[in-house]
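Task: sequence in, structure out. Protein: Fe-S cluster domain protein.
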Amino acid sequence: MPISALQLFKHLPQTNCGDCGYPTCLAFATQVVVEGADLTNCPHLSDEAKQLSGTIREQQQQGVGRRRDKLAIALKFLQEKVAPLDFATLATGLGAICREEEQRPYLELTYFGQTVRIFKDEVRYPAGTAENPWDAILLYNYIASQAKRPPCGQWIKFEGLPHSVSKSKTLHRLQRQLAAALSGKKELLAQRALTLGAQPASVSEDADLQFIFRPLPHLPLLLIFHDAEAEENFAAEAHFLFDAQVMDYLDLESLLFLVERLMDYLLEKY
Ligand code: SF4
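Result:
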């Protein structure tokens, strides 16, 4: 039996220290099993985990558990979940428009400022867009939520969302990465935020910058940024806040992925 990402994860230290270059041990396990990353990139492997390296290398060489297969399976599962749904009924609740092409219904919505068309079996992006299979998974997850309530306008911290304690460390790491990358560059941050269609906000009294992003129509993210102040020995800080009803639309994992995607755009990694 091949070793799955979850099985490997159980043998990792589960400290999410980030020394391997990935934000969590689970992300690293997935990269090893699905992408062929080197297991020894984790400098904290137990002897037990080291013993798995031979088997892992073998299955990597045989192409077992390749990323493409995994993503295709996840995508197919979501498409099957979405297939029986009535797009016309769901459109308003998702902030989308339901249209048809040759009797195939699709939802048209804005994703990171771009108009995408989501059919039950394919996603169409504007010409020239670099496709990332995770985007399709996120979009089908959003639709599969069948959410009906628009955002309530009340901002809460990630820790305020149900069952978020174990994942908040990941968000904190992402926030630190963003703050470090944009320290001393608030003009650049403002420029990129406006390019993405974000709106300036006035929620925090002492922030240097604050913007509301709408990566998906009913999924606002508030970014609060304090730039570094050398004289006061104050490092830059970035904090994301979420609409109190965000869990109607996405689970915590997908939400973290959405934050990572937003960071990709802000740091121009895409
Ligand atoms: S280096 Fe990576 S895999 Fe190893 S403990 Fe840290 S986060 Fe987990």
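The CA atoms of residues 67 and 73 lie 10 Å apart.
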